Amino acid sequence: MQSAIIGGLFLLANLHFNHHKARGIINGGGSGNGGSGVSSQQHNIIKKFSPHPYFDFDVPRNITTRVGQTAFINCRVEQIGDKWVSWIRKRDLHILSAGMVVYTSDERYQVTRSEKSEVWTMQIKFAQQRDAGAYECQVNTVPKMSMTFQLNVVEAKALILGPTDIYVKIGSAVTLTCIITQGPHDLGTIYWYRGTNIIKPTETHPNETSIAYPPRISVDLKWTEALTSRLKILDAKLSDSGNYTCMPTSAEASSVMVHVLNEENPAAMQRGGTIARHNSTTCQLYLLAFLVILFSRVYRSSWHS
């Protein structure tokens, strides 16, 4: 009686699995981001009673990594027995590996599997945007089992909001805002530099009378829709002038120039630069007109002679 009940449960699980597979929800494991097409209850029944290999649908199947990092695509196959996993790059149907053997001249690709582990990992070192796309994990059963993974490779860049040259009056406050909007959620942190020197804000407390509160230089880091870091400088001094760089741990850096001016109108320098450029352009136009007139007179003189 017990064996009949177990057999019935296993039959129900397989019928459910085949039903979803026929509808295209599962292709030996399906595709998508975390969805399995099999309920956790049915999955547990298969896990307990199936004598055949089957995929673990709880692994991430939509993977995002940054340009230059190593991408890890993990395919977990339970009860694989004497079978093995092959990795296929779907855009060109290239067989990247079979078992632990890699079939590509691109040395960035590597397959890892710990002893007796159910996880077969495809590693792509120094990932590039051309590596993005679908990768298929296949098991050499008859018929074959396969599950598709989507790899996204993004190029994260930092951006300091505002102009690349910032002019402020001495004694005023300066706020530099750096954001990273593209890339995996684990974007690390952001460091600020003035020139080649890292900026290390002093952590203070209102009860510490020996140190001014709030601190003159502070950094605020937070994650909302993007990773955002704000560098705040109170009571700007002439010595605060310089090149400021927002240096993320996982993205390309961004820089601006801060000019602290000892005058009432910080915009004067910008206007002076604009006037100088305008005067330079005017001189160039006058010179060009003079050359055109000179060439015209020389040409007429040679033509009449």
Automatic annotation (TrEMBL):
Output the GO biological process annotations, alphabetical, semicolon-separated. Answer: synapse organization
Q: Which residues cross the membrane?
A: none
Q: Which InterPro entries match?
A: Ig-like_dom, Ig-like_dom_sf, Ig-like_fold, Ig_I-set, Ig_sub, Ig_sub2, Zig-8
Gene3D superfamilies on file: Immunoglobulins (2.60.40.10)
- Which positions fall inside the Ig-like domain? 53-140, 143-257
Would you name any one GO CC term?
neuron projection membrane
Coiled-coil segments, which residues?
Answer: none
Q: Which domain of life is it from?
A: Eukaryota
Note the PANTHER family from the entry: DEFECTIVE PROBOSCIS EXTENSION RESPONSE 2, ISOFORM F-RELATED, DEFECTIVE PROBOSCIS EXTENSION RESPONSE DPR -RELATED
**What is the name attached to this protein's record?**
Ig-like domain-containing protein
